[in-house]
Amino acid sequence: MTTTRRALPALLVASAAGLALTGCAAPAPEAAGLSIVASTNVYGDIAAAIAGDLATVTSIIDSAAQDPHSYEASAQDQLAIAGADLVIENGGGYDPFIDLLVEGSGTTAVVVSAAAVAGLEEDAHSEEEAHSEEEAHSEGEAHSEDDGHGHLEGVNEHVWYDVHVMGDVAAAIAGELAELDAANAAAYEQNLAAWVTELEAVEAELEAAAAALGGGVVAATEPVPAYLLAELGFDDETPEEFTEAIEEGADVPPLALQQTLDLIASGEVRLLAYNEQTASAETERVRAAAEAAGIPVVSFVETLPDGEDYVSWMRANIEAVVGAVTPA
């Protein structure tokens, strides 16, 4: 699913003034070909694979030190968005700075939202409408569409860990590039086909690994890799109150922490999935408990590691899980 968004005049004036105040240099002359801006290097890598040398790709977040949930966009980011032909976001409340930049920059770029491609935003909207009606009847007021922390309620927005969805996202990107640059449509289609072939090999590896591992219970400090773990046949039984608090940077309720520690001590957990980018005192305590219980800990991150592309990264994640839970 894609959308096209246009500027809000007041925001455009404000953003232009902001650029002047920061003393940002005038933008360089436009490079040949299309300009693509992605919220993170995960989507930037996929876009680059589809576009080849026919476009310039800019990833706003390309470091594990940057958190998309709380990222504060710069004047340089707004200039990049303003000059973009295509913008790619995760959506679902994960990278809300993109929506602000699109609205404030004056861009007429097409926006591809991975969460929308996955259908998550529609699902959340439908659930929210039903919940709002109940609230309106019982309390006489409507409920907000998000949970106050940028997330859409009832969905896991970390869709890049769902390799099937990423195939659909890649197809959406290729389709938009073909619309923008019809003369090179065949090249985009060819690049897409080559990339999908590589992705299908990863999907086959997932299926084989799931059959070999035999499922079981896992725990996680945050639901970032949940789609991948589910595809591998695992059931994540971590209390939602724990993972939600970690994801939102809030204090973990004492009961949720104790329930998580009890899960770790139950002897049923085969693996602890640990998000290195949202470590805290509580997650470190859970990690220490897992290590003391002999439970393997596998690290996951939210941005593309150095030296990896999307396909090799997903393959490395699968191999890490298989290696951790397979007896030597």
TrEMBL record:
Transmembrane segments: none annotated. SUPFAM superfamilies: Helical backbone' metal receptor. It comes from the Bacteria. Residues 121-152 are annotated as: Disordered. Keywords: Coiled coil, Metal-binding, Signal, Transport. InterPro entries: Bact_metal-bind_prot9, TAT_signal, ZnuA-like. Residues 185-212 form a coiled coil. It holds the Pfam family ZnuA. Residues 127-152 have a biased composition (Basic and acidic residues). It is found in: Cell envelope. The keyword Signal applies. Residues 1-25 form the signal peptide. PANTHER family: HIGH-AFFINITY ZINC UPTAKE SYSTEM PROTEIN ZNUA-RELATED, METAL-BINDING PROTEIN HI_0362-RELATED. This is Zinc ABC transporter substrate-binding protein. The lineage of its organism: Bacteria, Bacillati, Actinomycetota, Actinomycetes, Micrococcales.
